[in-house]
Predict the 3D structure of the following.
Amino acid sequence: MFSSVFGHRRQLALLSRAIARDTLPPALLFAGPVGVGKRRVAMAVARAINCLEPRSTGEFERDACGKCAACRRIGRGVHPDVIMIEPGDNGSIKIEAVRDAIDRAGFRPFEARRRVVIIDDAEALVAAAQNALLKTLEEMPTASIFVLVSSIPDALLPTVRSRCPRLRFGSLSPAEVAQALARDHGYSETDARAAAADADGSVGRALSADSADLTQARDEACRLLEQTARTDDPARRLEVVRDFSGTRGTSASDRDQMAACLRALAALLRDLGIVASHGDRRTLANGDLEAQLEKLIGSFDHRRSLKAYAAVDEALNALERNASPKIVADWLVLQL
Ligand SMILES: [Zn+2]
């Protein structure tokens, strides 16, 4: 249902209105970063079109009920008129995979208002499949609607792209990522927040990282800031950094943990910059740590936060270029 999708309100309202007024084009391209919910929105479109008891809310002209037989079958992936096509084991979508959907495109759906064909990771369509699809789109079937979902839309043939009006999806806010992780993936509030702060607005990216480590990384980054705020003495600071995990060894996992700490540190410093300059607090990556951020602001004003942020960025660069985690940490702690 549209109402249970996180973020993308403008796009959802647009889709909902087009469905209510039956003006949805026969093909659409959902473009945007990986893991922001494009496929989920495509499923919500399929439901809103085919729900047996659609509703209209203040926000959406037409949305699915989520409970009727059609909604439930779409949710289970067994609705005969809602077809999901995605890459096979070899990573591509062969022509055979789209053939059936294409053959049926001109015919009336079995039981739906309109058949919905969702092609996820559409850039994986082999050229022959794209051409077959194109032929179908040129004939403008009215019984089917094709939703192509892609994070690399420019890899599609230009002819296909020109046939599919593009709906762009942006990144989610950290708060939206955290909500999605907590509601749909069983994360605790703390783990969800920590993972979201390091996820670049993508639920998919958050899920592919290990949230336990990120929670630890964020805790350590927070502690490091609190301790460096307290002392300017270089010897003391170097002592502080010894507790920073990932600095003890040089193995790949030590480096990864160190990099996670640095990214957490960068996110905290960016947040401090926002708080210090009285920016919009809804954009904080670590909105749940507002109290700690408030305390730190006494030591980390806007200028110092910016300078520290640049230093963390340089430290991450050095780490990527294979510098020793210990040397990077020692250098960094003296710059904060
Ligand atoms: Zn329904």
Observations:
- DSSP finds 15 helices and five strands in the chain.
